[in-house]
């Protein structure tokens, strides 16, 4: 019983989602930036299993100001730590450094207004993606925290994985152990949409490596008139994979200001070895 309790408490659910907000509440701090008319299309593409890419989600000026914030943050001693897996002694899965940013009471963010804006913009996406109403599959839940990851430029990587975890139907036959796992993976099980905002140079070169490689087709858009636009334009013709065989592998370069969205339970992805510093701010929208 004690280990069940521990699984529940330590097992991601309590620490990670206890103070999550519903989508509407999370968006109340910051108006969503996606053009309202396009948000439904993006949600549809995500539900079809595509990796949605939106270029120009941040303007060049916002990106430059955010990069200044990142330099300040990186200079704060002990703020970026090795990721939890590597800290626990396993560096075979991922080698990035991370810092978890929280919406409230995070003094590190107090003076970093642009980074705060990025955090809020990500947190406002759930309400936009659900079309400003509750989703059929249940309301979306927005954690208070985002993950800021720094991949150093020495071949840092994150091997292939899926962000969520769906329990196979037979797992209930495993009895108490199944219940333990169910609780242990509580928050991961509840991840719905992964939202990543890249904070690197806009002209990221392929030589730098660091692609987000996905086993999924890409649906590519750009903000039509900069980050205050009222519509999205399809940056690549249509939905790659639509009508034909889905592309088995897509490479998404971590260009600054680019937003990437995908179904956390479905899309297998990896960060290929990076030869330049690579920053990514991630939110796992849950349910
Ligand atoms: O930074 C990226 O492009 C993806 C990172 C990732 O897959 C993760 O943190 O789960
Ligand atoms: Fe991931």
TrEMBL record:
SMART domains the record matches: P4Hc
Any one GO BP annotation for this protein: cellular response to hypoxia
How is this protein named in the record? Fe2OG dioxygenase domain-containing protein
Keywords linked to the UniProt accession: Dioxygenase, Iron, Metal-binding, Oxidoreductase, Vitamin C
Q: What residues does the Fe2OG dioxygenase domain cover?
A: 139-287
Matching entries from InterPro entries are given as: HIF_prolyl_hydroxylases, Oxoglu/Fe-dep_dioxygenase_dom, Pro_4_hyd_alph, Pro_4_hyd_alph_FE2OG_OXY
What range does the record give for the signal peptide?
none
Q: What single Pfam family name could you report for this chain, choosing any that match?
A: 2OG-FeII_Oxy_3
Name its co-factor(s).
L-ascorbate
């Amino acid at each position: 019983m004690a280990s069940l309790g521990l699984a529940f408490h330590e097992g991601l659910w309590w620490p990670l989602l206890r103070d999550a907000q519903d989508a509407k509440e999370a968006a109340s701090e910051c108006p969503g930036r996606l053009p309202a008319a396009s948000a439904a299309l993006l949600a549809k593409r995500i539900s079809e299993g595509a990796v949605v890419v939106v270029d120009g989600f941040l303007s060049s000026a916002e990106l430059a100001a955010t990069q200044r914030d990142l330099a300040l943050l990186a200079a704060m001693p002990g703020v970026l730590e090795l990721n939890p897996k590597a800290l626990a002694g396993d560096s075979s899965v991922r080698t990035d450094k991370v810092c978890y940013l929280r919406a409230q009471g995070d003094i590190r963010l107090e003076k970093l207004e642009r980074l705060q804006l990025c955090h809020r913009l990500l947190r406002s996406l759930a309400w936009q993606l659900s079309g400003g109403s509750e989703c059929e599959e249940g309301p979306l839940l927005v954690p208070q925290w985002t993950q800021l990851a720094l991949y150093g430029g020495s071949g840092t990587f994150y091997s292939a994985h899926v962000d969520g975890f769906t329990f196979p139907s037979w797992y209930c036959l495993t009895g108490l152990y199944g219940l333990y796992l169910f609780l242990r993976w509580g928050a991961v099980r509840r991840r719905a949409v992964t939202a990543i905002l890249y904070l690197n140079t806009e002209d990221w070169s392929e030589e730098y490596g660091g692609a987000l490689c996905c086993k999924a087709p890409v649906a590519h858009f750009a903000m039509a008139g900069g980050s205050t636009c009222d519509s999205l334009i399809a940056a690549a013709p249509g939905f790659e994979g639509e009508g034909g065989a889905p592309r088995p592998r897509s490479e998404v370069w971590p260009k600054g200001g680019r937003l990437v969205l995908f179904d956390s339970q479905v899309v297998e992805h990896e960060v290929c070895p990076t030869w330049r510093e690579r920053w990514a701010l991630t939110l796992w929208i849950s349910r």
